[in-house]
């Protein structure tokens, strides 16, 4: 893709040794933009993509430009003339690199790739203001199921939405099940009804055709599911005419009860149809997107219009990282919306492959690179996509409605954000003051150990940045060298592994600079992924008092990081904050926002460790129970647990029920039942917590 490239160039080109010796200075002091400004004439005038990196090699901003020289020079003007966020970005950065490309389309693609790969914190990242529900039909199943859910999509299923309120779409689904009695029960309920030979309540009240007991063939049930999908996709006219003809035929044949049922079905369809008013009389499929912004933030609202009806809506908010105008903000949003494979949920996804892009995208502001964006979306859809700003008629009226919704969303978000942002800022300032830190701890890490009497020992690491969880940075540790219930030794191993990786990554990055390679220093050359431990925390929080803090301090001193990374412990009994080498703890007021933030951090580490421990313990129990069954390997054990859900349900299953699981025959199913019912000691259980303690007989 790239025609040429360049690494960062300082005003005076240093030698490799000078570049390495300058690294500690960069780490300790905020960078002066003039210290890493490329030499005059070294920046090309071609189109390209650039990225700013901090002293650790972490990419903090990615941008594109038609003329790289003009755009980059704008960052190195008088700093007082820059936007406040741009000032913070250029003073945080320590390097700038760029890659030259052929055209605007390539720059869009490369910019999106880098943003997804590096997650730069100074780029505009639109955050969904809430999780919207969708309606799903599991079309790839033998008997498709309909349900309301949230989250990622699955290949081979059909999705409708998103919808504004979960209760509204559930109410609609309940209404439609009287007309289209397809399966809506879970896999467990379906299998249990099939095994028992009688349907669930929905089968008795007419909201399900009961395929579980053979009342309907798979083909006939799929026809019902297809009619359901057709109605949800807006193709309701043919269904209504068909039901009207059936009602008339039933009345002619004196089948008045059936005619009454069909009449009620028509009423249900009319009720469900009224929930989605027609907004475009020509039956257009379109996404309608509007921006609302102020100097600090930008809000986006999108209406998904399918068949002329509004099928769903979503909203996003984001901080404005620089002085980018509405065209640039719209372009960034379109990249994020249609760049990922699971973002656009406004119409049925037949195969689950790739993003769904409608033929028409109506926007409140024309994107900066209109032609390139049109080509990109057309390539994604596989046919021509039109992007335009509506000027008159129904489409303009709809755009005005979406714009008002975006403005309202921004106003509501600002009301919520004001208190939330102020609270987080106050919490970080209180922690800084209480612990005597030079600056607020923008990155905090907490660690915890979980085990039961020395078995299945695991550790957890959670990360908070700017007072908010950064779950992509969470890490789990399986303790390798552990004896008994020595939590100090386990914590020593976890911290040692984390800090050793930090130093190894720093050494690797310093070696890259010494070799003259300052591009992608945070990328591991062996894996091609970002170095997960290369970012040092400002503060480490351990669960416990003075002994735990002392043990953690020994690890920091062992790796020479005691002066760079602050440390504290939070004791549960009185919620005291302990510092290294201090005789008395720091007592924060119970109403302190700083104490609340430390508690959240510690409790999140505890939750993360407990969750991992329970997963490993459950897996170990299953393996021990089924150990030695001929022909039962790891894959089949996993299949069993996915089918039955728990060891208790598996114990209650018969050989015939186990034999219905894919990959299990009668002989293997009987072997599993024999292993489950064998006379063996039951695990001891803590009666207070309900947790398994060790293998051994339980008390009578």
The CATH class designation of the domain at 443-612 is Alpha Beta
How large is the count of helical segments? 20
Helix content: 40-55%
| CATH third-tier fold name of the domain at 443-612 | Nucleotidyltransferase, domain 5
The appropriate CATH architecture of the domain at 443-612 is 2-Layer Sandwich
User: What is the CATH superfamily classification of the domain at 443-612?
Assistant: UvrC, RNAse H endonuclease domain
Class by SSE composition: alpha+beta
User: Ends: how far apart?
Assistant: 72 Å
Rg over CA atoms, rounded to whole Å, is: 30 Å
Shape, per Cα inertia axes: globular
Nearest-integer average pLDDT: 75
Largest sheet: 7 strands, mixed
Strand percentage lies at 15-25%
Strand segment count: 22
Low-confidence stretches: 1-29, 340-355, 679-700
GO biological process, one term: nucleotide-excision repair
Subcellular location: Cytoplasm
InterPro entries: GIY-YIG_endonuc, GIY-YIG_endonuc_sf, GIY-YIG_UvrC_Cho, RuvA_2-like, UVR_dom, UVR_dom_sf, UvrABC_protein_C, UvrC
Family: Belongs to the UvrC family.
How is this structure best summarized?
The protein has 700 residues and is α+β, with helices and mostly antiparallel strands. Among the domains are: 2-114, GIY-YIG endonuclease; 286-410, Nucleotidyltransferase, domain 5; 443-612, UvrC, RNAse H endonuclease domain (Nucleotidyltransferase, domain 5), CATH 3.30.420; 627-695, DNA polymerase, domain 1 (Orthogonal Bundle), CATH 1.10.150.
Give a verbal description of the structure.
Keywords: Cytoplasm, DNA damage, DNA excision, DNA repair, Excision nuclease, SOS response. The UvrABC repair system catalyzes the recognition and processing of DNA lesions. UvrC both incises the 5' and 3' sides of the lesion. The N-terminal half is responsible for the 3' incision and the C-terminal half is responsible for the 5' incision. α1 crosses α14 (487-514), α9 packs antiparallel against α10 (256-274) and α11 (326-339) runs parallel beside α12 (370-381). The strands form five sheets. Strands 14, 15, 16, 17, 18, 19 and 20 form a seven-stranded mixed beta sheet that branches. A six-stranded mixed beta sheet has the order 5-11-10-9-12-13. A four-stranded antiparallel beta sheet has the order 1-4-2-3, sandwiched between helices. β2 (48-53) and β3 form a beta hairpin. The longest helix has 43 residues, at 393-435. Among the domains are: 2-114, GIY-YIG endonuclease (3-Layer(aba) Sandwich); 286-410, 2-Layer Sandwich (Nucleotidyltransferase, domain 5); 443-612, UvrC, RNAse H endonuclease domain (Nucleotidyltransferase, domain 5, 2-Layer Sandwich); 627-695, DNA polymerase, domain 1 (Orthogonal Bundle). By secondary structure, the chain is an alpha+beta fold. The chain is built from 20 helices and 22 strands.
């Amino acid at each position: 893709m790239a025609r040429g490239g360049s690494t960062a160039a300082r005003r005076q080109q240093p030698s490799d040794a000078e570049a390495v010796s300058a690294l500690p200075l960069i780490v300790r002091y905020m960078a002066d933009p003039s210290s890493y400004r490329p030499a005059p004439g070294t920046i090309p005038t071609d189109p390209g993509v650039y990225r700013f990196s901090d002293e650790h090699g972490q990419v903090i901003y990615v941008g594109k430009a038609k003329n790289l020289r003009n755009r980059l020079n704008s960052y190195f003007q008088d700093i007082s003339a820059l936007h406040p966020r741009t000032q913070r970005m250029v003073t945080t950065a320590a390097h700038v690199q760029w890659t030259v490309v052929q055209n605007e389309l390539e720059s869009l693609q490369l910019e999106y790739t880098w943003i997804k790969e590096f997650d730069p914190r100074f780029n505009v990242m639109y955050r969904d203001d809430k999780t919207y529900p969708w309606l799903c039909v599991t079309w790839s199943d033998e008997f498709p199921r309909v349900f309301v859910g949230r989250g990622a999509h699955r290949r081979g299923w059909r999705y409708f939405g998103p919808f504004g309120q979960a209760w509204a779409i559930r109410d609609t689904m309940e209404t439609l099940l009287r007309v289209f009695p397809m399966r809506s029960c879970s896999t467990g309920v379906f299998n249990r009804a099939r095994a028992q030979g009688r349907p669930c309540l929905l089968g008795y009240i007419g909201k399900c055709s009961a395929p579980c007991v053979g009342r309907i063939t798979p083909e006939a049930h799929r026809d019902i599911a297809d009619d359901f999908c057709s109605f949800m996709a807006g193709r309701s006219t043919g269904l209504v005419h068909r039901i009207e003809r059936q009602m008339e035929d039933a009345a002619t044949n004196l089948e008045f009860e059936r005619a009454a049922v069909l009449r009620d079905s028509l009423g249900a369809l009319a009720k469900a149809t009224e929930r989605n008013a027609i907004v475009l009389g020509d039956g257009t499929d379109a996404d309608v997107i509007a921006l609302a912004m102020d100097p600090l933030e930008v809000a986006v609202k999108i209406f998904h219009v399918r068949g002329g009806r509004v099928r769903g809506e979503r909203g996003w908010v984001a901080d404005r990282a620089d002085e980018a105008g509405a065209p640039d903000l719209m372009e960034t949003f379109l990249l994020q919306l249609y760049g990922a494979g699971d973002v656009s949920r406004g119409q049925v996804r037949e195969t689950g492959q790739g993003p769904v892009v409608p033929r028409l995208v109506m926007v409140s502001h024309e994107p900066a690179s209109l032609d390139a964006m049109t080509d990109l979306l057309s390539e994604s859809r596989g046919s021509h996509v039109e992007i335009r700003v509506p000027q008159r008629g129904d489409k303009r009226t709809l755009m005005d409605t979406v714009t008002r919704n975006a403005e309202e969303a921004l106003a509501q978000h600002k009301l919520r954000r004001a208190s939330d942002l102020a609270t987080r800022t106050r919490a970080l300032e209180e922690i800084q003051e209480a612990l005597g830190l030079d600056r607020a701890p923008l990155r905090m890490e907490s660690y915890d150990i979980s085990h039961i009497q020395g078995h299945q020992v695991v550790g957890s690491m959670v990360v908070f940045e700017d007072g908010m969880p950064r779950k992509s940075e969470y890490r789990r540790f399986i303790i390798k060298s552990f004896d008994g219930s020595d939590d100090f030794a386990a914590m020593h191993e976890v911290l040692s592994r984390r800090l050793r990786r930090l130093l190894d990554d720093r050494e690797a990055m310093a070696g890259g600079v010494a070799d003259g390679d300052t591009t992608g220093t945070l990328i591991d050359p062996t894996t091609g992924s970002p170095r997960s431990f290369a970012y040092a925390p400002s503060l480490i929080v351990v669960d416990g008092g003075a002994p735990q803090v002392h043990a953690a301090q020994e690890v920091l001193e062992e790796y020479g990081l005691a002066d760079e990374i602050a440390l504290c412990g939070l004791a549960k009994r009185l919620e005291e904050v302990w510092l290294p080498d201090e005789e008395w703890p720091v007592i924060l007021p119970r109403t302190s926002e700083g104490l609340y933030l430390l508690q959240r951090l510690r409790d999140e580490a505890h939750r993360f460790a407990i969750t991992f421990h329970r997963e490993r313990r459950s897996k170990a129990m299953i393996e021990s129970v089924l150990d030695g069954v001929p022909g039962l390997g790891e894959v089949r054990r996993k299949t069993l647990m996915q089918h039955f859900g728990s060891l208790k349900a598996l114990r209650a299953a018969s050989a015939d029920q186990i034999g219905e699981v894919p990959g299990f025959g009668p002989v293997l199913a009987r072997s599993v039942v024999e292993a489950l019912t064998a006379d063996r000691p039951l695990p001891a259980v803590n009666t207070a917590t309900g947790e398994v303690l060790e293998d051994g007989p339980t008390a009578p």
